[in-house]
Amino acid sequence: MSDSELIEQLQRATSGLLWTSESDSPFVAFVWEKPPSLLGNFTGKRFTPRDLLQHLELPPDTPVETVEFDRFFATATREEDWHDEATAEEVRQYRALVELLRDSLTEITVYRVGEIELEIYIVGKTPSGNLAGLSTHAVET
């Protein structure tokens, strides 16, 4: 799958899906085509929080937490007895999204940038060697 096809599939998979926090926010699909700022750091190693801050042009002391991919989506993909049909459908949509991300990207990491008002980046490597994934916003007080 090409990077542009991946973006289209991610956009379809997240259509109408909101990341729930104190503010519900949509997902935005992205591809970072071997950013010039990362060329020296990019080849042969994992993308790091430092690399992310550099790419986003944020100060190096900006708080960044990494979260394991499955842990990040654990609540969103778990069916509960009390779910109504709309919530059960949302769980199915999240499960399909997780499967798409797993099938399309390697070395997936979730980065939570900031405090209270967070920017969340789900980043992995594409077969072409670029970085791609989803971003969203969360508020956690």
How far is the first residue's CA from the last residue's CA? Answer: 39 Å
Largest sheet: 5 strands, antiparallel
Unreliably modeled segments:
none
Rg result: 15 Å
Helix/strand class: alpha+beta
Q: What characteristic shape results from the CA principal axes?
A: globular
Number of strands: 7
Assess the beta-strand content as a share of residues: 25-35%
Query: Could you spell the SSE succession in H and E letters?
Result: HEEEHHEHHEEE
Calculate the mean pLDDT score and round it: 89
Give the helix level as a range of percent.
25-40%
Strand order of the largest sheet: 3-7-6-5-4
Number of helices: 5
Structure in words:
There is one protein chain. It contains five helices and seven strands. A hairpin with a 3-residue loop joins strand 5 and strand 6. The strands form two sheets. It has a five-stranded antiparallel β-sheet with strand order 3-7-6-5-4. The mean pLDDT is 89. The protein starts with a helix and ends with a strand. The protein has helices at residues 3-13, 39-42, 49-56, 69-73, 85-104; strands at residues 18-19, 25-26, 28-32, 64-67, 106-113, 117-125, 131-139. The protein has 141 residues and is of the alpha+beta class.
